[in-house]
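Good morning,

Attaching, inline, the backbone tokens for the sequence recovery test we're adding to the shared suite. The designed sequence is right after.
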């Protein structure tokens, strides 16, 4: 019989022989059932987080374009390409300054620019543009983002103040004529 590190030559006690196969299978079945209950909730939470993150990133990019227009006293425009799920910030008559790509599981479902609703595939393929003026004003803009579960977030600007905010759970449009 081998000698243990404590110098004892006693073997394992009668109750210390480990788990039986049945106990292991029962434990795995219980763990599987718990995982089946918990994982869908985690995925819903991640989808919502991706949507909020994309909306916040979009609002941040639009704020950046406005701040650049003011600080450089130049026109800036943002070209929105829903088909590529991205937008480009472009200085007056220049090359893109920055490209922002949204999460691939979030899409731009509709836009309202200066009161015109763009929500049909043909309208969104034309890469709509939003303009930022050196005085800080901008085109009225509302962007609706949607994830794979149909949840929505809205990015809206106050066109005189130029500030952008994210509104979760967007239903309808706030910048269509007659809705303000």
């Amino acid at each position: 019989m081998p000698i243990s590190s404590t110098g004892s030559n006693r073997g394992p006690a009668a109750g210390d022989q480990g788990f039986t196969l049945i106990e292991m299978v029962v434990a795995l079945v219980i763990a599987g059932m718990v995982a089946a209950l918990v994982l869908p909730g985690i995925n819903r939470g991640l989808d919502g987080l991706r949507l909020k993150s994309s909306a916040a990133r979009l609002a941040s990019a639009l704020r950046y374009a406005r701040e650049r227009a003011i600080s450089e006293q130049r026109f800036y425009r943002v070209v929105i390409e829903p088909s590529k799920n991205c937008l480009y910030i472009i200085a007056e008559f220049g090359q893109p300054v920055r490209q922002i790509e949204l999460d691939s599981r979030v899409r731009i479902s509709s836009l309202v620019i200066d009161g015109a609703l763009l929500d049909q595939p043909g309208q969104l393929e034309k890469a709509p543009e939003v303009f930022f003026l050196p005085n800080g004003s901008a085109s009225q803009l509302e962007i609706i983002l949607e994830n794979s579960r149909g949840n929505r977030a809205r990015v809206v600007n106050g066109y005189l103040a130029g500030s952008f905010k994210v509104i979760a759970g967007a239903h309808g449009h706030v910048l269509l004529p007659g809705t303000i």
